[in-house]
Amino acid sequence: AAGVIQSPRHLIKEKRETATLKCYPIPRHDTVYWYQQGPGQDPQFLISFYEKMQSDKGSIPDRFSAQQFSDYHSELNMSSLELGDSALYFCASSLDGRTYEQYFGPGTRLTVT
Amino acid sequence: AQSVTQLGSHVSVSEGALVLLRCNYSSSVPPYLFWYVQYPNQGLQLLLKYTSAATLVKGINGFEAEFKKSETSFHLTKPSAHMSDAAEYFCAVRFKIQGAQKLVFGQGTRLTINP
Fold this sequence. Notes:
Chain A has about 110 residues and is mostly beta strands. Chain A has no helices and eleven strands.
């Protein structure tokens, strides 16, 4: 069965640069969630989209923005990167905004040097 | 306040022994509860979930968890540990925060299996 796809899997950026992470949900899933997992930390919810509209917002810094496109894929844009942004970024998808049935992607590991 | 607490950041058991990973939550309404497993350098994989049906939930890889409302617990168990069970395990709870449903994770428990 198709799963959530994230790209790139690994990304290295320098401080103050920008980064764009992409998430392709499971086919027919219309809801996307973004999480940030710092080293040795539990995943923290950043933001979610349902039917291309922002549905919920968590602890997403103002330097970050995200959107969901007409094909339901989502992109997380991160600007003015800081060392503390180094983390594993997960995307999850679900159908009809069902937060209790989220399927997670493999994550993008971002390293800021 | 709504929270999820996993007791023990590291648990070590021998191969073939019982696995018990503890999770407690605080919530004023019946929650939805989940256990996820994360293998090194991989994403989160859903092991099992409780959504107000049977209190004993069976998941993949021989794991199961029991929802105990009186104890506000959702501990994860497996009768006999296998080397392949070594991973990080996260308990998660769906809370309603400021009008929105959110998935909140516990701090995680790293399970080590000794041969």
